[in-house]
Every structure is written in structure tokens, then in C-alpha cells.
Amino acid sequence: MKTSKALVLFSGGQDSTICVAWALERFNHVETVGFDYGQRHASELAARPRVLAGLRDGFSHWAARLGPDHLLPLDTLKAIGGSALTETMAIEMGAHGLPNTFVPGRNVMFLTAAAALGYRRDIADLVGGMCETDFSGYPDCRNNTIQATAKALSLGLARDIRIHTPLMWIDKAATWALADALGGKALLDLVLEETVTCYEGDHSRRHDWGYGCGVCPSCKLRADGYAKFRAA
Ligand code: ZN
Q1: Are 178 and 161 in contact (CB under 8 A)?
Q2: Distance CA 52, CA 190 (A)
Q3: How far is the CA of 14 from the centre of ligand 1 (A)?
Q4: Cα 102 to chain center, whole Å?
Q5: What is the whole-number distance in angstroms between the Cα of residue 211 and the centre of ligand 1?
Q6: What is the homologous superfamily of the domain 5-197 according to CATH?
Q7: pLDDT in tens, 44-99
Q8: Residue 199 CA to ligand 1 centre (angstroms)
Q9: 118, pLDDT greater than 80
Q10: What are the sequence ranges of the domains in the chain?
């Protein structure tokens, strides 16, 4: 059988963890890449090896498919600054109608770095958790941006780069349902226990929907989605 390979943009959060599971169901060799961009909270990056170990240990049919994990520095984003994710500032509405958690250019940079790494690793299929269904309005999460980036990367690397975004058109409740469909209770438990999506990086307060500060926009989205998933 021909080896199909994918490289998943993996932050250690809920969405990208479910994307890794999604890729493991579809490709027979899956590598992961994370980015150290000077995010204020290290807890998200710290979650990555725990989640990968959980996928390896808890799902024998996926373990053989899970390849190397990569961590790339992108501290340019920290040097540019101005975001509540890279600097100590309160989360609030910022310029251009976007919350100040927006990190300009982040996803385009991530995808460019991932495609370059994929070029070296002979992987042309990238997977990312971008979603424009119940998002914060970040323009670089939109499908048009992602597919235009795939086109630019395909031209710039002279190979066909495909970017898969399995969460693009589903809300957070459906994302939990997708995790359930892919890996059942074991995957739901792994997402609940180990992933960090909180903007404050809180992995100390446990709620029924997992860990987080419980008040930041990211925790609210996760909590509301989980409640809707459980009520369905
Ligand atoms: Zn939070």
C-alpha cells in the first residue's frame, strides 16, 4: 500500500488534538508540528507531549501511524508584539473590530513554515484546526484565506500542497461530537484532561468541559460547545 502522509499543525489545544485523530484515521503516516511563537503561556506547549503520549498509549491502531513531532521557533511574532497572547495585557476588543488576541499573520506564517517542513519531509498534505463557524472573526481562520495560502504555497514550492481543515464548517458542539466519533470516550477523556485552549493558559481549574480559567472567550466557547454536545 502506498504511504499516505500528513503533517498536522498541533498546538496542544482541543481543536488541533481532534485534527490529529482525524488525520490518523485517514493517513497511514502522521507527523505533527508545533510553533513556539513566544506565547505568554507555556502550558499549551507543555500539553503537546502529554496529548501525543495519550494518543500513542490509548489507541493501538493509531500508535503505529504516529510519526515524529516537530517544534519550530517563530519568535518573530513575539518581536512584533501587540497581542494579548504574546504580551501581558487584558483581553479586549482591539483595532479593526478584532479582539486583541488576534496575532496578525499567525496562521499564514504557521502554514508557510509547515509547508516548508513538509517539503523536507516529503509531505504535501497539511491539516489544521482553522474554523470559521463559531470563531472570533480572525481573518486568517477563514476558508478563503486558507485555500489562497494553499495556492500560493503550491506555486512557491512547485508541488501540490493540500490544506485540510476538518473543523472549518462545524461548531464547537460538533467538534466534540467528531472527537466522540473518532475515538469515543477515550478520546473525549484525553481532550478533557490534557488539552489547553484557555487564553490564560490555565490548567489548574477543572470544569466538566476540561481545564481553564472559565471566563476568557476561548473557555466560554469550549464550555458552551461542550454543554450543547452533552445536551444533544
Ligand atoms: Zn480561559
Answers
A1: no
A2: 10
A3: 13
A4: 15
A5: 8
A6: HUPs (3.40.50.620)
A7: 889 999 999 999 999 999 999 999 999 999 988 888 877 777 777 777 777 677 77
A8: 5
A9: yes
A10: 5-197
